[in-house]
Design a protein that fits this description.
It is built from 13 helices and 10 strands. It is α/β, with parallel strands linked by helices. The protein is globular. The structure holds D-glutamic acid.
Length: about 280
């Protein structure tokens, strides 16, 4: 039994897709979330920069005494996985759990992957799927989706977001995929739009959700769940203005979060010392 919180981080709002599922699966757990909104997007950065950011984000969460860390960020999970492998607590990225779920879901073996440019360039999802079987994989980087989500343009009727989605998804539509990995955790916030552009015929696999389910399995297997009987609390930290984050987070989570969002000065992140 372990009453410490679960730590979750992302470049911004995307990791909330994991938080929403964690709260569903493990309602008694406390969660500490860090969104690096001062440095979003991550998907356009170099591997060197991502290793540095992933280390700083993880170190910040370790200081909050978390029992496990979820990198709810496809980009970090694909490009900076070695940081996660070195952490002194169990850590999980999104690639393996999401690839497994997609392999289970597909019927025709044709799987699409949409993610940030860095994730697509890394080939991480293709490698993970190859280990699971003989699938045809079609990839597409969708970097503008991240900005649209961070700007809060997530309404299913948003015409600009719909047009962007149509342009990005057209090549995948032509490949007769039956399953699509949302390999960036920001993208499930656009699920209704992506689903409608694909004509409701493709199974969408949500990286945040699958990773939260995998986290629940790990903590259960390690007998590290809390014995708290009341619901756990969620505390949010961001590296830029809390109000912008709170506004979109509230839209997505469907509840008030404003009072639980605090800003972490960039210097606190960058000046943390010590090994992971
Ligand atoms: N949500 C992140 C991911 O899953 C990062 C998006 C970004 O910051 O570019 O890749």
């Amino acid at each position: 039994m372990d009453t410490r919180p679960i730590g979750v981080f992302d470049s911004g709002l995307g990791g909330l897709t994991a938080v929403r599922e964690l709260q569903r699966e493990l309602p008694h757990e406390h969660i500490v979330y860090f969104g690096d909104t001062g440095r979003v997007p991550y998907g356009t950065r170099s591997a060197e920069t991502l290793l540095e950011y992933a280390g700083q984000d993880s170190r910040f969460l370790l200081r909050q005494d978390v029992k496990m860390i979820i990198a709810a960020c496809g980009t970090v999970s694909s490009v900076a996985k070695e940081v996660l492998d070195e952490l002194p607590v169990p850590a999980l990225g999104v690639v393996e759990p999401t690839a497994k779920a997609a392999a289970k879901a597909t019927k025709n073996g044709r799987i699409g992957v949409i993610a940030t440019a860095a994730t697509i360039r890394s080939g991480a999802f293709e490698r993970a799927l190859k280990e699971l079987g003989d699938y045809e994989v079609f990839t597409q980087a969708c970097p503008l989706f991240v900005s649209l989500v961070e700007a809060g343009w997530i309404d299913p009727d948003d015409t600009v977001t719909k047009q962007v989605a149509e342009r990005y998804l057209q090549p995948l539509k032509e490949q007769n995929i039956d399953t699509l990995i949302l390999g960036c955790t920001h993208f499930p916030l656009l699920s209704p739009i992506i689903d409608s552009v694909l004509g409701g015929k493709v199974t969408l696999v949500d990286a945040g959700r699958e990773t939260a389910c995998a986290c629940a399995e790990i903590l259960t297997a390690q007998d590290a769940l809390t014995d708290r009987v009341e619901n756990g609390a969620c505390r949010f930290y961001v590296s830029d203005r809390p109000d912008g984050f709170a506004c979109v987070a509230e839209m997505f989570l469907g509840r008030q979060v404003e009072d639980t969002v605090s800003r972490v000065p960039m210097a606190v992140l960058t000046e943390q010392e010590g090994a992971l």
